[in-house]
Amino acid sequence: MYTYRSVQNSRYCFVHNAKKQNFLEDAEYQVLSTWFDYSEKNLDIDLDLIVYLKTTPQVVWDRMAKRGRAEESEVPLEYLQQVHDSYENWLSAPNVGCEVLTIDADRNLGCVKDDLQRYTYKILGGNHTN
User: Fold this and answer.
1) Which SUPFAM superfamilies would you find in this protein's record (predicted)?
2) Using CA atoms, how far apart are residues 62 and 76, in angstroms rounded to an integer?
3) Domain encompassing residue 24
4) How much is the CA Rg of the chain, to the nearest whole Å?
5) Model confidence over 23-58: pLDDT tens digits?
6) How would you label 63-101 residue by residue, b for 16+ Cβ within 10 Å and e otherwise?
7) Could you tell me if 41 and 59 lie in one domain?
8) Model pTM greater than 0.90?
């Protein structure tokens, strides 16, 4: 399974959250915002679909603990809640700019894979079979 990120989710979720939590100074935030605005104006970075694998912070935290990866071991549940809230705010806004396909990823991996398979035509933008 692949995870794709976008410039938009970086800005509206991670950069926004970093600023809100005072991990970024005003000048740093302004540089990042200016870079995004420039990119949006001068590059084709529009999204045509967002696939949101919606997972509650507790489930994410439990899965991270189960994986036992060193780089994930210090991530607090509070941070996952903050990022989740940023995603919820961004993706529920009327000006997201594209369709949002929400898949309940709290369920087991098989169910999530079934949903992704069911929406392959939307995700890949045409008639695709495996």
Assistant:
1) P-loop containing nucleoside triphosphate hydrolases
2) 11
3) 7-46
4) 16
5) 999 999 999 999 999 999 999 988 899 999 999 999
6) ebeeeeeeeeeeeeeeebebbbebbeebbeeeeeeeeee
7) no
8) no
